[in-house]
Design goal:
By secondary structure, the protein is of the alpha/beta class. The protein folds into 4 domains: 53 residues, Phosphorylase Kinase, domain 1 (2-Layer Sandwich); 231 residues, Rossmann fold (3-Layer(aba) Sandwich), CATH 3.40.50; 174 residues, 3-Layer(aba) Sandwich (Dimethylsulfoxide Reductase, domain 2), CATH 3.40.228; 116 residues, Barwin-like endoglucanases, CATH 2.40.40. The protein contains 23 helices and 27 strands. A 6-stranded mixed sheet has the order 5-4-17-16-15-6. Strands 22-26-23-25-24-27 form a 6-stranded mixed barrel. A 5-stranded parallel sheet has the order 10-9-8-12-13. It is globular. It binds ligand MGD (2 copies), iron/sulfur cluster and molybdenum atom. The site of molybdenum atom has 2 residues, from loops.
Amino acid sequence: MRVTRSVCPYDCPDACGLLVEVEGGLAVSVKGDPEHPHSRGSLCPKMTRYQDTVHSPRRLTVPLLRTGPKGSGRFEPATWPEAIDRIAARWRSIISDHGAQAILPYSYAGTMGLVQRNAGHPFFHRLGASRLDRTICTPAKAAGLEAVLGQTPCPHPAELRNCDLVVLWGINAVATSVHGLKDVREARRRGGKVWLVETYRTPTAAEADSTFLVRPGSDGALALGLMHVLERDGLLDRAFLDEHVLGFADLSRDILPDYPPERVEALTGLPAAEVEAMARAYGAAKAPCIVLGNGLSRYGNGAMTVRAIACLPALVGAYGRPGGGCFGSTSTGGAFALGEVTREDLLPGPVRTVNMNRLGHALGELSGPRVMSLYVYHSNPAVVAPDQNAVLAGLAREDLFTVVHERFLTDTARYADVVLPATSSLEHSDLYKAYGSYCIQRARPALEPVGESRSNWEVFGLLAQAMGFQEPFFRQSADDLIDHLLALPSPWREGVDAAALAEGRAVEVTPPPGPRFRTPSGKVELLNPREPHPLPRFLPPHAQGEAPPFSLMTAPSLFGLNSSFCERDELRARRKGMRILMAPGDAEARGLRDGDAVAAFNALGEVAFALEVSPAVPAGVLVAEGVWWLEFAPGTRSVNALTSQRLTDRGGGSTFYDNRVDIRKLE
Ligand SMILES: Nc1nc2c(c(=O)[nH]1)N[C@H]1C(S)=C(S)[C@@H](COP(=O)(O)OP(=O)(O)OC[C@H]3O[C@@H](n4cnc5c(=O)[nH]c(N)nc54)[C@H](O)[C@@H]3O)O[C@H]1N2
Ligand SMILES: Nc1nc2c(c(=O)[nH]1)N[C@H]1C(S)=C(S)[C@@H](COP(=O)(O)OP(=O)(O)OC[C@H]3O[C@@H](n4cnc5c(=O)[nH]c(N)nc54)[C@H](O)[C@@H]3O)O[C@H]1N2
Ligand code: SF4
Ligand SMILES: [Mo]
């Protein structure tokens, strides 16, 4: 038996270290690496049997060519040369008839490794294809934080242990931040208090001393209301405000008077007395830290909500205290010269950019030129993208030539003209950085590729050759490129143990020294004249005032990661089917019972679920956790048939949570 170090490749803040035991060419067990500085040997329930994903009988092993109608999943096997020739021939003809911008790549985060994740960029840039704005996840959160903090580095997660008040704000940490939660637990063990601010009582509520449920999309008003009380009651750190904060006088004169606790109650649903009590406790804490999730940023007002929340620690000087402030995500972008992977310099000239949240629109209405070919890799837009009906209608277009490079025959792959089998992370090389810690790690293959599967990097090498690209760049291996990236110095990697990194161990990088607050003014910017609204305020979410009676929370599942892990029988079993959660009072009022077959619907679509009546959910809210493959859905659609292509206020982000639906019993 051989043990190889690896990294969890999924879109999760932790990038846990793995120890993979290989016997007879197969991964027989996957354990946590006890030497990993952040995950320290533990894994979440999804990854403890990763070998069952890697060696799943559902793995694609050969290229496939479509034989049945789009979406039917009927294919015949082909060789790699046949599949690549088919793609290259069709692209040549599309380029000559419509231009290269009629080709659209679509990828997101099936793997987070820097080389495999970005492998298509140089190829599609060189081709002159349309560009994809990859904004499905957190651009509004990033924009909101940046408006206040600029490029200020996020604290090290271990600092959370020193907080006397941790505010888990819109984060289901039990599901999405398993290892960050350990530091929160340690803070609590040391006597700190933990709060959860949410729209329903998630499993994370069990980790908190107090849970505050707000109306979806209203957190900005809560943050402004807390600041109103802090100011009114003089619970401010004047010295910090004077020295390190820009615009407090403007905020307190022009904005805060509009957010007394009574108005905040009307906007958020939190009783005014509770807002007052929260402000007093927050103001009394020595080092309060807000751990900010992503859910609350996926609304039409998402960036402004995040911005208002990010202002709060400034008033009490929490940004100046060890452990205090705001933990958004660690951005270690500077650790590697990513431009050497993405190669923007290969672009032939200006090309259009398509927002990935508007794929339905791009495949349906977009012209000049119309999208004639879609190349999907490590993403599953048929189920993860908003407005599923529009996406599926686009994918069903007979004149659209779709290629999908995948590990599994996903819903997207079922619509492909050509399916290419992809390696899992244990079968290819990559370089990883985390967004919940400062670890970086290099991984080499632990196994031979399963079947004839090939990595993203290899496939783009084949396509480059088929399209006649002469640049030597396309002929190097993934390891060549990783070696190149590691050979380029970065101030972030100064002092790291290069030998340990080369060996495949995780090492920690450090933000390069610089001013404390990396904004243009060098201060925390409550006032930001570069923003359309120079001061934070409450903006209503898109769905506010829309007619259907329920807000739908499209929340993460503990036992899945977006649509990944649907291949695993035992994880699906733990999710207990595709359910929708409803408050007992709402169910009673509508004559609905636990276990009923129901349909949630709005103007965009209708989705069948099994109803779970749950006291965790407040009145007026419905919760559908996780994204399901249609194969396992009770009807013909999954949750994103109910979500819209509307974008966030800043950053062009997704608004998965910003929708209203109605519900009825299915006969
Ligand atoms: N197990 C598991 N892990 C995951 C994922 C998964 O699907 N499952 N997804 C991965 C990905 S892609 C990402 S981006 C990350 C983060 O994944 P995200 O899906 O962004 O999850 P969170 O950051 O935990 O934020 C979600 C929480 O926000 C809450 N929320 C929604 N609207 C509001 C609101 O208006 N106010 C407040 N206060 N709360 C609100 C939801 O109820 C939910 O509990 O996790 C990653 N890890
Ligand atoms: N309703 C609802 N919708 C959501 C969300 C939600 O919480 N609720 N979350 C949203 C968020 S935050 C995100 S980030 C997106 C995520 O959307 P995606 O990035 O599309 O995520 P996954 O559904 O995990 O699909 C990734 C696919 O990549 C494949 N894959 C894995 N490794 C490789 C590889 O090396 N090469 C290739 N070619 N394929 C590979 C996997 O088999 C999997 O099918 O979904 C969004 N959609
Ligand atoms: S917690 Fe996240 S990084 Fe760690 S094993 Fe689970 S999915 Fe992977
Ligand atoms: Mo995400």
